[in-house]
Amino acid sequence: MKNPRDIIIRPVVTEKSMSLLEENKYTFIVDLNANKIEIRKAVEDLFNVKVDKVRTMRVKGKTKRVRNRWGKAPDRKKAIVTLKAGDKIQLFEGV
């Protein structure tokens, strides 16, 4: 099994993801090859909470032009994790 720190790359801190905190939903950038079961296990191990639901989406990287060349940002995978009632992740509390 993969290390939980390899599965969860970083949290997403945007206006939309902060509004989801009221519904007890937390958003993370995760490994492209991670499935919902691995994401659930990694969040439970890292933050000592119980996960109710995991929703994932793949986000294609945007194409950008730098001087005379075209480049592409890497693809990524986002996971929206819903926790059981009463559980909170302290990482997001001060943001």
From TrEMBL:
Keywords annotated in UniProt: Ribonucleoprotein, Ribosomal protein, RNA-binding, rRNA-binding
Q: Which InterPro entries match?
A: Nucleotide-bd_a/b_plait_sf (IPR012677), Ribosomal_uL23-like (IPR013025), Ribosomal_uL23/eL15/eS24_sf (IPR012678), Ribosomal_uL23_CS (IPR001014)
Listed under GO cellular component are: ribonucleoprotein complex; ribosome
BP GO annotations: translation
Cross-referenced Pfam families, in alphabetical order? Ribosomal_L23
On the tree of life, the source organism's domain of life is: Bacteria
Q: Which GO terms describe its molecular function?
A: rRNA binding; structural constituent of ribosome
Instruction: State the SUPFAM superfamilies in the record.
Output: Ribosomal proteins S24e, L23 and L15e (SSF54189)
What is the recorded function of this protein according to its Swiss-Prot or TrEMBL entry? One of the early assembly proteins it binds 23S rRNA. One of the proteins that surrounds the polypeptide exit tunnel on the outside of the ribosome. Forms the main docking site for trigger factor binding to the ribosome.
**Homology family:** Belongs to the universal ribosomal protein uL23 family.
The record, for NCBIfam families, names: PRK05738.1-3, PRK05738.2-4, PRK05738.2-5, PRK05738.3-2
Q: Fill in the subunit field for this protein.
A: Part of the 50S ribosomal subunit. Contacts protein L29, and trigger factor when it is bound to the ribosome.
Q: What is this protein called?
A: Large ribosomal subunit protein uL23
Instruction: Please report the organism this UniProt entry assigns to the protein.
Output: Desulfoscipio geothermicus DSM 3669
The taxonomic lineage of its organism, from the top, reads: Bacteria, Bacillati, Bacillota, Clostridia, Eubacteriales
